[in-house]
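Q: My labmate handed me this sequence with no annotations at all. I'd like to see what the chain might look like in three dimensions before we decide whether it's worth expressing. Could you predict it?
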Amino acid sequence: MLAIVIPYYKFTFLEEAVASLVNQTNKNFKLYIGNDASPQCPEALLEIYKGRLNFTYKKFETNLGGVSLVNQWNRSIEMIEDEEWIMILGDDDVLDNNVVEEFYSTINEVNFLKINVIRFASIKINSNSEVSSDPYLHPKLENSTDFFFRNTRSSLSEYIYRKECVDSIGFKDFPLAWYSDVLGVLEFSVFEQVYSINTAMVNVRISEHSISGKKDNQLAKSKSKSLFYGYLIGLKLHFFNKDQKIKLLQQFGNSYLNDKKNIPLFLEVSKSFISNMFFKEYFKFLFKMTQVLFKKYHMKLNQF
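A: Here is what I predict for the chain of 304 residues:
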């Protein structure tokens, strides 16, 4: 059976999220809502759906999301009883009404192929619930490392994971949980295949209320980026081919260029290039760094 978990904090779009679950054509799932000590109590709304939706609600006494969003995910996940599959739905995202039905229509094939991660097609919506992108569709079967380098997007709500993988591996705790979901896809799939469903859509909301839509959190996002790439390069590089390794190292180098005062990060980036014997790529990184620093110095001179 499927568990759908909402780690709740913001009430603004919760009614749309819950309504999309009430409207599922297949209701063979249980909803778990973990309230992160929100000042906006959702209980009156949930009372409306009693009898129409199988759910468990819990209000936590302390707020964790403000310190560690991943830990709020984790304690909400701990509410789950005996379901084998888990979807973590953002409290502002919306499911097409056939998402659960399409999940069950593919589950036999997914189990036969021993796949741990299922991905749905997605589309962006804004704060007015207006569609703001073309649909993002995916190959039916795709190695998670290939998907990572494909020019596409990803968000937590569009995945269903085999729960035993989530329990045994867990989400890595990065600031704002930025890249935590991406790493989860890679690790829960054991860097192997992801099964995609393109016949149902997850509507991912990008707004001034969402981490993705906010502009005042760039430092935390940059920190997460450097931690994410450092983690992959330090522990998981053997799962990638040569071209992918170079791209990972280049992205790690770019994370330093966005945080040029971070000398420990520069040393870590340098060590990663050198220890993996990508000397040519390291010199390219140094040259790019010199260009950036020279441009910054030149701009400062022009101010006088």
